[in-house]
Amino acid sequence: MTNSTGTIVEYSRADLSKASPAPTLTLSNVGGILSFDPSGDLWVSNGSTSVAEFTKSQLTRSGTPKPNATLGDSGCTLAIDASGDVWVGTASGLSEFTEAEITKSGSPAPKVTITTTSLSNSCKPAFDRSGDLWAADYGGSTVLEFTKAQLAKSGSPAPKVVISSPALNSPGDVGVDRAGDVWVPVAANNRVVEFGPAQLTKSGSPAPALTIAGPATGLNWPWAIAIEP
Questions:
Q1: Are 86 and 33 within 8 A, CB to CB?
Q2: 18: pLDDT strictly greater than 90
Q3: Is 146 exposed, middle or buried (0-12, 13-18, 19+ CB in 10 A)?
Q4: What distance in Å separates the CA atoms of residue 59 and residue 41, rounded to the nearest whole number?
Q5: Which of 21, 33, 51, 186 has the fewest CB atoms within 10 Å, counting from its CB?
Q6: Quick check: 78 and 123 in contact, CB under 8 A?
Q7: % helix / strand / coil in the chain, to the nearest 5?
Q8: Strand pairing category for 161-163 and 142-146
């Protein structure tokens, strides 16, 4: 999870049941938008000019690691699907770039572009285990689900599910854990909220199943999150 200070903090799975857990790992001066690839390496976009990769082995202890790789001119929010393709969230929707396209320099055309008024200001998307994509609309204070089938071709599909809980006051990125829980940092309220799978089967305004907040958490205007594969 990223703070506004450029610091990434990690919480163990066991500690996520606590209201105010202490971080198990802290990385300094590397913060940004986060996404894990299928091998467990962490990719970090600074939101403006570059994307850096940190290997799984670099994520075992706190510190200020040097990126294993840096890609320039790639400053958008991102998520990586099971095939290694990169999905980018922008102010106008979502775009997919294939793994082959992101290994070379240039400005490739997206394989798929999803444009919809429901994503007026999209933060980082995340995939669940079925291949459906979840994304937050910062401007609309909602979290949306698009099915794998809807993502197969360009267009403007209506979201399968829209979560518009009062707890989502200007949501940041989205993270989905192995159990199918959706986690959303809410910078304006200095907290992170969780919605369980049973709450995500249909559109509505559920209360979060869990809220993480308080001084012991190390949270400072949280807005980016990633969950290990």
A1: no
A2: no
A3: buried
A4: 9
A5: 21
A6: no
A7: 10, 35, 55
A8: antiparallel
Sign of CA dihedral 112, 222, 178, 37: positive
Q: Count of CB atoms within 10 A of residue 210's CB? A: 15
Non-local CB neighbours of 106 within 8 Å, separated by 6+ positions: none
User: Given the structure tokens 């450029």, which residue do they identify?
Assistant: 6
Separation between Cα atoms, residue 82 and residue 85, nearest integer Å: 7
CA 58 from centroid of its chain's CA atoms? 20
Residue 215 DSSP class: G
pLDDT digits (tens, 9 = 90+) for 57-85: 999 999 999 887 665 544 457 788 888 88
pLDDT value for 221: 85
Instruction: Specify the pLDDT at position 154.
Output: 96
CA dihedral for 155, 78, 167, 193, sign (positive or negative): positive
End-to-end CA distance of the chain: 14
Domains of the chain (ranges, CATH numbers): 8-217 (2.40.10.500)
Q: Which single residue is written with the structure tokens 């998307």?
A: 125
Least Cα distance to 19 among 202, 157, 228, 213 occurs for 213
3-state SS string for 11-74: CCCHHHHCCCCCCCEEECCCCCEEEECCCCCEEEECCCCEEEEECHHHHCCCECCCCCEEEECC
* pLDDT tens-digit map of 97-152: 776 766 554 466 788 999 887 776 666 789 999 999 999 888 788 999 999 999 99
Q: How far apart are CA 21 and CA 24, in angstroms?
A: 9
Amino acid letter, residue 189: N
Q: Give strand pairing partners of 134.
A: 126, 145
